[in-house]
Amino acid sequence: MALVDVKGVTKRFGGLTAVSDVDLTVSAGEVHCLIGPNGAGKSTLFKLIVGLYPPTKGTISFDSVDITDERPFARVQRGMSIKMQAPSVFRELPVRQNIEIALQGRLSGAQRDAERERLLDHLNLASESGKPAGALSHGQQQWLEIGMALALQPQLLLLDEPTAGMSPEETFKTGEFIKSFNAEGMTILVVEHDMAFVRQVAQRVTVMHLGKIFARGNLETILADEKVAEIYLGKTHAH
Amino acid sequence: MFKLLDGPQTLGRGRTFWSCFLIVLAAALVYPIFADSYDVGNFSYFLIWIFMALGLCLMWGYGGMLSFGQTFFFGIAGYAYGVLAINMGGGSTTIAALVLSIIIAMVAAGILGYFMIWGGINGIFFGIVTLSATLVLAFFLGQTAGPEWHIGPARLNGFNGMKGMDPLAIGDFYIEGSALYYVMVALIVIVYIALRVLVNSRIGNVIVATRENPQRAEMLGYDVRKYQLLTFVIGSGLAGLSGALYTSWGQFITPSSIGLPAAAMPIVWVAFSGRSDLTATLVGAFLLLFGFQTITVYSQQVALVLMGTLLLVTVMLAPQGFVLGVGKLVADRWTAGRRRDATAALPDAGRLQSDGT
Asked: A110 lies in a domain?
């Protein structure tokens, strides 16, 4: 069953067409990776799905409801959650409060406090919980933002380059983290450049190029596609 | 409730802070017994403006909305109190006039805020639009000198201002002098406590989150526009409370209490004090008002120039605010001192214990 259904979506910024007539379906319960070279339109498509940009043309449905004209907060209330490309946290507020703000919509009192501590532990941020979020390292801010996105317990988690700035160990751990949430039934859509990470988590892959869908399928099919290798992966990856 | 009073959004927590708070409150309560009525009246006058400063602190420091419109809502409520008090008659109806005038200011804030916030006006443009509204109101009221500008028996009187309204009263008892002072102190305590609870509540969490990163706050499922509007209405309503109390206190109000020099004052008070903390704003605004009034006795121009200089110095040297900076310094020293004492006590405690065994 399709959880997200993007139909014929185009986004133009003046004379530039960032996304052109894109169709994308994300099935419930899958980890779907969106890959492509820089400027392919992946992040723009993300922002269209979450409502940060209105599409110039086309429709977006979530759980069979047309959400094209809904504001981002309404989409989040329906069950979406996003981690942006650059860490987007409340920099002046303590790490603990960042998580609290994300949690307080669905939990309160002792339950909220317990869940906050559990998440901080899980994210390896318990010892940093009193620090302002802006004082964390880039990688830790990425983790914090992922934690804030997860605190909403979304049906659909959108992750835009979640491992940027992370070490290989941290990247692997993030992958396992994502897989554990997927195993609990969460649908995850990821934009990522790190192919090791994509191999680790992806169940289905869509390749974008110049604002259009270039190829789609499982990872093996995509890796075996000569045209994909030419535009993005480099021929050595294909073999 | 107590957790909300001592929450993370407010400096000044724990037994020491609240003991100091009670001492200051006790001193404020006994002050009229030892002071002459002129000084008590002056203190009441200073306290009138504190609500406006606290309202701006909430909007600017906590909500990230720099409003130049505090005197706009001050003026609306001040004039509304005058019109209502004159039209409704004196006595206890003045209390109703006070409440209604604040509601009118809040409705005006709701309308202006709706168009600004839903229209996507933010940052410096928020200040520009609110300042424009303020100047338009001051200009408009300045040209209402003719006899045709009246609402019932209440004449607006142009630059000379409106007068002839009764002060606050309950029956035949006028709330003036010491009585007005005690009402002011009670209102300040109520407003201060209520704002502390608000900013440390779940709503307060979203208000500061919106200041920090509105997009992230929206991506957590909050309609940030509603929280911004709520903050704007409460902050402006507090300016309205100041306006209505001011008219009641002096039984007059003029457009000059709305115009540009007056509109800049709350910004100076809050910037100097430390916009991100209610206690710093409360203390700093009171100190500045006291200083300004003392200097004004000798020269109003000098007082205004000093205020402008103070704003510049604050921006250059202590952008987070002087009072807040001093408060943090004292708190840090106090905490460090206590830690040192505790560390020094530890070896002694160990020795006593081993001696005993």
From this structure: no
Q: What is the pTM of this model?
A: 0.90
- Range A203-220 average pLDDT: 90
Q: In what helix (H) or strand (E) does residue B203 lie, and over which residues does it extend?
A: helix B202-212
Record: contact B218-A71, CB cut-off 8 A? yes
Closest by CA position to A102, among listed A121, A122, A116: A116
> In CATH, what number is assigned to the domain containing residue A18?
3.40.50.300
Give strand pairing partners of A187.
A156
Main-chain phi, psi angles of B198, to 5 degrees: -60, -50
In a domain, A129, yes or no: no
Q: Best interface-test mutation with B: which of A43, A76, A104, A111 has the largest number of B CBs within 10 A?
A: A104
Asked if the structure places residue A10 within a domain, the reply is: yes
Query: A73 — contact with chain B (CB < 8 Å)?
Result: yes
Q: What are phi and psi of A57, to 5 degrees?
A: -155, 155
- ipTM (interface pTM): 0.90
Which chain A residues have a beta carbon less than 8 Å from that of B217? 90, 101
**Per the CB < 8 Å rule, is A52 touching B212?**
no
The CA distance from B285 to B317, in Å, is 18
Residues of A in contact with B216 (CB under 8 A): 84, 88-90, 148
Residue A234 has a pLDDT of: 55
Cα torsion at A90, A96, A101, A104 (round to 10°)? 170
CB contact set of A99 (below 8 Å; sequence gap of 6+) = A116, A119, A120, A144, A147, A148, A151
Q: What is the pLDDT of residues B194-235, one digit of tens each?
A: 999 999 999 999 999 999 999 999 999 999 999 999 999 999
Q: Does A104 touch chain B (CB under 8 A)?
A: yes
Judging contacts by C-beta atoms under 8 Å, the chain A residues touching residue B224 are 73
Are B222 and A81 a contacting pair at CB < 8 A?
no
Residue B170 phi/psi, 5-degree rounding, is: -120, 110
Q: What residues make up the domain containing A50?
A: 2-86+150-233
- Say whether residue A92 is in contact with chain B using an 8 A CB cutoff: yes
Interface of A with B in 139-158 (CB under 8 A): 148, 152
Which class for B322: exposed (0-12), middle (13-18), buried (19 or more C-beta within 10 A)? buried
Task: Nearest chain A residue to B221 by CA: give it.
Answer: A73
| A211 domain residue, yes or no | yes
**Interface touch B209/A101, C-beta < 8 Å:** yes
State the pLDDT at residue B11.
83
**Do residues A59 and A7 lie in contact, with contact meaning Cβ atoms separated by under 8 Å?**
yes
The number of folded domains in chain A is: 1
pLDDT tens-place string over residues B49-92? 999 999 999 999 999 999 999 999 999 999 999 999 999 988 89
- pLDDT recorded at residue B347: 54
What is the per-residue pLDDT for B158? 94
3 state SS of B295: helix
